[in-house]
Structures are given as C-alpha cells and as structure tokens.
C-alpha cells in the first residue's frame, strides 16, 4: 500500500485519505465546519467484507490473501451531489461522515472542507508516517561501525 496521495486524481486522493483516517476523526473535523447538510440515503451504511489480493514480492502472480471487513454507504445531498464511502472495519459513523465530505467536496464548499477536514488529515498522516519511520530507524543496526577484533 502506498503512503502517498494521488495528485492527478483529487477525488481518489481525498477518498483514500478519509479511508485511512483514525476512527472518528473525519466526523469530528466535519462537525467543526458546521451543521451537516440534509441528504437522502442511496445506500445506508452496511457492513460487509471484500477479498484482499496480494502479490508475492509485489511482482508475482496475484493470490487471494483473505477477507477484510468494510463499511460502505452512498448518499445524495438535497442539491444533487452524490457521495460514496468505503471504510475499513465496522465504522458506520465514519462511513457516513466520509460520504458527506465526498459529496460536499463536489460543491462550492470544497475549499472550506479542504482547509477544515482534508488538510488536517494530510498533516496527521504525515506525522504518523514520520513517527513510524523514526521508530524503524531506531532499530537500525550499522554493522560497519563494529570492530571485528583484528588489530
């Protein structure tokens, strides 16, 4: 899985960002923007599973790795924009919040949501990535600094 965001497809980037967000984070950031818009469900949040595929060495033939629990939903705002969400795990509230953000990003509120919801998620993702890299770097062993006992 890549840790970078797709800059060529902005919708794909924000959908990925929300799918990777910690539990409850998208909803809390969305609540800071104001009252949620009115919408109609196209598909209420439902929990299911999807098959995850992998490749040996990232280049081999694909194989079925196993199933992953996901929550999905779709909604339409009263103004006509449609929002979708697929979130890992059993998180109906997160899927709803992500679908609302997806729909609102297609309106004139996109810049406001970018600053209030997506930019904080991007910086938090970068911090998590840096912390993970620092933790991995702390375990690095530099064998070239060890003496071999030969004088």
Topology diagram in text:
Elements: H1 10-19, H2 25-33, E1 39-55, E2 62-77, E3 82-88, H3 92-104, H4 110-138
Antiparallel strand pairs: 1-2, 2-3
Helix pairs in contact: 2-3, 2-4
Essential attributes:
single chain, 151 residues, alpha+beta, 3-stranded antiparallel beta sheet, 4 helices, 3 strands, globular
Number of strands: 3
Contiguous low-pLDDT stretches (5 residues minimum) are none
**Number of structural units classed as domains:** 1
Binned, the helix content reads 40-55%
- Main sheet specs: 3 strands, antiparallel
- Secondary-structure element series: HHEEEHH
- Lateral arrangement of strands in the main beta sheet: 1-2-3
Radius of gyration: 20 Å
**What oligomeric arrangement do these chains adopt?**
single chain
Question: Which percent range describes the beta-strand content?
Answer: 25-35%
Q: Which word captures the global form?
A: globular
C-alpha end-to-end distance: 47 Å
Supply the helix-strand structural class. alpha+beta
């Amino acid at each position: 899985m890549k840790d970078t965001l797709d800059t060529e497809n902005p919708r794909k980037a924000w959908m990925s960002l929300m799918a990777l967000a910690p539990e409850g984070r998208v909803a809390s950031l969305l609540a800071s923007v104001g009252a949620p818009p009115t919408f109609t469900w196209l598909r209420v949040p439902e929990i299911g599973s999807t098959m995850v595929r992998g490749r040996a060495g990232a280049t081999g033939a694909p194989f079925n790795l196993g199933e992953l629990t996901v929550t999905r939903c779709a909604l339409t705002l009263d103004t006509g924009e449609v929002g979708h969400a697929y979130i890992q795990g059993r998180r109906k509230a997160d899927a709803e919040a992500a679908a609302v953000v997806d729909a609102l990003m297609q309106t004139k509120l996109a810049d406001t949501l970018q600053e209030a919801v997506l930019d904080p998620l991007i910086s938090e993702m970068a911090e998590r990535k840096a912390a993970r890299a620092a933790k991995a770097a702390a375990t690095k062993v530099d064998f070239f600094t060890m003496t071999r006992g030969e004088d």
